[in-house]
Amino acid sequence: MTSSPSKQSPPLYDGPIVDAHVHYWNPGNTPREVSPLVKLLGWNLGLTNWMAKRIFPEAAILFFATPKYLTKNYLPDDYNAEFETTNQVKGIVHVEANWTGKDPVDETRWLESLQTNNASTILGIVSHVDLTLDFNSVERILQSHKEASSKVCGIRDAIMWHSNHQVLSFARQEHRSRLDSFRASFPLLEKYNLTFETFCYSNQLQEMTELAQAFPNQRILLDHVGTPIAIGGQFAGHAGVGENDTERLQITEQWKADIRQLALCRNVYCKVSGLGMPVCGFGFGEPTEEPSVETLVDKLSPLILFCIQVFGARRCMFGSNFPVDKVSVPSLDTYLVVYKRILQQLPRSDQEWIFEKTATEFYSLNKE
After folding, report:
1. How many CB atoms are located within 10 Å of the residue 39 CB?
2. Which pLDDT score, from 0 to 100, does residue 4 have?
3. Cα–Cα distance for residue pair 130/289, rounded to 1 Å
4. What is the pLDDT of residue 11?
């Protein structure tokens, strides 16, 4: 009696990739939260990071785990240097990165001035505008973004807010997308053929569903699978989030229910990204050792595959969230292997959509 041959795994994805979530910055020469400190002490990054941990809010340090990726440059050459093996990334979508200058259009102009090539090529730009400004101001800023670069394809305005003071809130107030001023300006995005994406926490997913239902013709993108705080383990220690198994199970079940509801809105897409951020609670960030590919696949695959199941491959896209996720996965080569392993059992056509086609279609990257 002969044993049946073992079933071989399909080959890892070897096609083109669009990295749909990358941030470039140069804090010494462009306005960011850390810029004053970098200008003062940037000659010594060790001293800069030591000081940053002591002067920046605790919630910010907990969110990023370390300031070292925020205080040093991350530019096109740095992105290209991420790849030691054969590079399949044909370009990136740059997502606004908390430009603190008075004019958000300056970030778009700065991006246009960068020299990019190979993987670092900017295929699309997601710019920022504060949608709670008055209608005419929002329209003027949108027009200026479009004039500054033909690559501008979307707008991001973060609504992330949490009542726990140890969780970093990027928005100034709760329920920002429900404000009359926000809702009044929102139709301008459709007028200028711009996508909308936002950074929110999982406790705000119902708010996202309300927005999507109110504007069914607007293409909306959920960043980082809705950033489920502490879904992988306790975040922020005592008085933080997800302190015990029961609470984390509740977080998981609520996240799944809210993702299912949001996915019913056919105008909403999902970035399966950002799960390396410490706020998700997996404990990958410093000072722990770099996790293995096997560990990352084991921890991240249930969340990624769940989102693909409910949204469908044609409404899901890959994004590295580099350099923010470098705190957990320093190597982009490694991160790509993790995603390829997670998606390995899916049909090849689904992998093509997630790695390239969804982003290309959603952002209209082939418009020129």
Report:
1. 13
2. 46
3. 39
4. 93
Q: Which three-class secondary structure state does DSSP give residue 91?
A: strand
For residue 3, what pLDDT band results from cuts at 50, 70 and 90? very low
Q: How far apart are CA 362 and CA 82, in angstroms?
A: 26
Rounded distance between C-alpha atoms, residue 159 and residue 186, angstroms = 13
How many whole angstroms separate alpha carbon 339 and alpha carbon 321?
A: 13
Amino acid at 228: P
Give me the chain's average pLDDT, please.
Answer: 93
Q: Are 59 and 168 in contact (CB under 8 A)?
A: yes
| Model pTM score | 0.94
Question: How is residue 190 written in tokens?
Answer: 């459709």
How far is C-alpha 54 from the geometric centre of its chain's CA atoms? Answer: 26
Q: Which residue has the tokens 């059992």?
A: 345
Distances (CA, A) of 40 to 32, 70, 160, 191: 14, 15, 30, 43
CA 353 to chain centre: 18
d(CA 352, CA 132): 37
Give me the mean pLDDT over the 186-192 stretch. 98
How many Å apart are CA 28 and CA 37, to the nearest integer?
Answer: 9
What beta strand segments (E) does 96-138 contain? 122-128
Q: Which pair of tokens denotes residue 66?
A: 């370390």
Closest CA to 221 of 180, 143, 273, 147: 273
Answer whether 38's CB lies under 8 Å from 48's CB.
yes
- State how far the Cα of 214 lies from the Cα of 188, in Å rounded to an integer: 14
Q: How does DSSP classify residue 241?
A: B
Q: Whole-angstrom Cα distance, residue 266 to residue 339?
A: 25
Mean pLDDT on 239-247:
85
Question: 61-75, 175-189, 338-352: which range is least confident on average?
Answer: 61-75
Residue 113: CA atoms inside 13 Å, Cβ hemisphere, count? 9
Per-residue pLDDT of 52-76, as tens digits, reads 999 999 999 999 999 999 999 999 9
Inter-residue contact 165 to 59 (CB < 8 Å): yes
Mean pLDDT of 317-343: 95
